Amino acid sequence: MPKIIFRLLLSFIVFVTVFVLIQQYLTPNSFGKYGHYRADAIDDNKMRTSYYKGEESCVTCHQDVYDLKSEDVHDRVRCESCHFPKIAGSVDCEVMPPKVEGTLEFCAQCHAINLGRLKKGVPQLDFKEHKGDQNCIECHNVHAPWELKE
Amino acid sequence: MGTERIKKNRRTFFKTSAALISGTLLYSLMKPFEGLAQTKEEDIQEDKTNFPLWGMGVDLESCIGCGKCAEACKIENNVPIEPFYFRTWVEQYTVKNNGEVKIESPNGGIGGLKQSVPDEEIFKSFMVPKLCNHCTKAPCVQACPVGATFISPDGVVLVDETYCIGCSYCIQACPYGARYMNPVTKVADKCTFCYHRISKGLQPACVEVCPTDARIFGNLKDKKSDLVKFLQNNPTQVLKPHLNTHSRVFYNGLSSEVK
Questions:
Q1: Is B101 in contact with B257 (CB distance < 8 Å)?
Q2: Which of A94, B24, B126, B131 fits a disulfide with B88 by CB distance 3.0 to 4.6 angstroms?
Q3: What secondary structure does DSSP assign to B47-96, as a single string?
Q4: Do B126 and A116 touch (CB under 8 A)?
């Protein structure tokens, strides 16, 4: 074999070996387990922090409010629909209570007049016409809207 | 000189060429039969049958456009609060009497959608919540040059944040505009069906907070799930069916105006 061919062949083999070794070293272990991606990324996505706890955790302390809500028209509205968590789910909600200001704007998110919302069983009203600038919670109990306050 | 060498070894030259060509032909003949052999990929596909197949139903007849879902999504997934980053948002479509269609989604619908067109001009108006459609043939996955976005075995399109190089090809490839570049992590971000919640048996945050149950989440393989019942009870459609993405977000009551 001519010397030049031998050298070429040798350098080619060295190049391929180095390439394969580097590739082996750099490819994460779980890459290609399910497809062309790192399978551990699925676990990374699972590990994220959850903020919304679900009604089960609210009920442990607030069974009375839950019962009141379940019997009235807001039964399908979950606790956290209005009381959205302000802090990480791992922390007790007593530290920073998810308090809601029952302002007109807040109730208007669902109850302001909008033609796109018609015929959907959600009462809509012109707040100005209804009671002017008076706050909804002055008359309505938010958890049971038809238990009117005197 | 070259012709001379070929003339000298004409026999060898023909022999080598014939061997090469027949070898290539033989290999290409064998290629289709490779599937017959029990490969590693096939094992995984059998394994995949044990995984659930997540999907979502959106009932446009129930959606009131309160924007609670978009708000909850931002809180749950640490989406930047600035008004232009969303994993899910709600659009209001207004068809005017003259046939004009107005689409608006101020701040993704957070804080409740308000009608900007006077009542007497409106022919019809409806709300459309949008999110990642978790396509079976996802264009974003095909576009990713590094394998940082993928379809998980349970049918959710996820992003590998440590692998993403931030080239934003996937953002351009998505026909639904469901991806954005996260300004904090500098990688592509998108709806994961709240993967950290559903893997623990919880509902996604948007489904959890919806006051009218307009979003239905469930396992498409479980014939008793709420989602399968929803699909059986309602004539549903997917967005942009002509793109053949085979998405797994099903809309009930979808008008032809929706893009």
A1: yes
A2: B131
A3: HHTTS--EEEEEETTT-----HHHHHHHHHTT---STT--SSEEEEEEEE
A4: yes
Q: What angle do CA B47, A33, B133 make, to 5 degrees?
A: 75
CB B213 within 8 A of CB B57: no
Coil/strand/helix, residue B105: coil
Helix or strand holding residue B126 (H, E): strand B122-130
DSSP character string of B131-163? -----TT-HHHHH-SSS-EEE-TTS-EEE-TTT
Residue A11 confidence (pLDDT): 97
Q: Do A42 and B158 touch (CB under 8 A)?
A: yes
| A34 vs B44, B61, B127: nearest CB | B44
In angstroms, what CA-CA distances link B180 with A51, B99, B186? 22, 32, 10
Contact: A114, B125; criterion CB under 8 Å: yes
CB contact under 8 A, A116 and B195: no
Give all strands of the β-sheet with B89-96 in edge-to-edge order: B101-104, B89-96, B122-130
Q: Which residues of chain B have pLDDT under 50?
A: none
Distance of residue B111 Cα from the nearest chain A Cα, in angstroms: 6
Q: Domain limits of chain A? A: 3-47
* Nearest residue, CB atoms, B64 vs list A35, A105, A117: A117
- Is the CB of B196 less than 8 angstroms away from the CB of A46? yes
State the Cα–Cα distance between residues B54 and B204, nearest whole angstrom.
11
Tokens 């590998």 correspond to what residue? B160
Confidence band, pLDDT 50/70/90 cuts, at residue A118? confident
Nearest-angstrom CA–CA distance, B229 and B169: 37
Structure tokens at A94: 């007593």
Looking at residue B232, what is its pLDDT?
95
**Mind telling me how many Å the CA of A20 is from chain B's nearest CA?**
18
Partner residues linked to B237 by β-bridges: B251
- The two three-digit tokens of residue A133, written as one number: 């600038």
What is the three-class DSSP state of B207? Answer: helix
Q: Are A41 and B160 in contact (CB under 8 A)?
A: yes
* ipTM (interface pTM): 0.84
Q: Please give the residue of chain B at the shortest CA–CA distance from A39.
A: B152
Q: How far apart are CA B86 and CA B79, in angstroms?
A: 7
Which amino acid makes up residue B65? G
CA separation for the pair A93, A73 (Å, rounded): 26
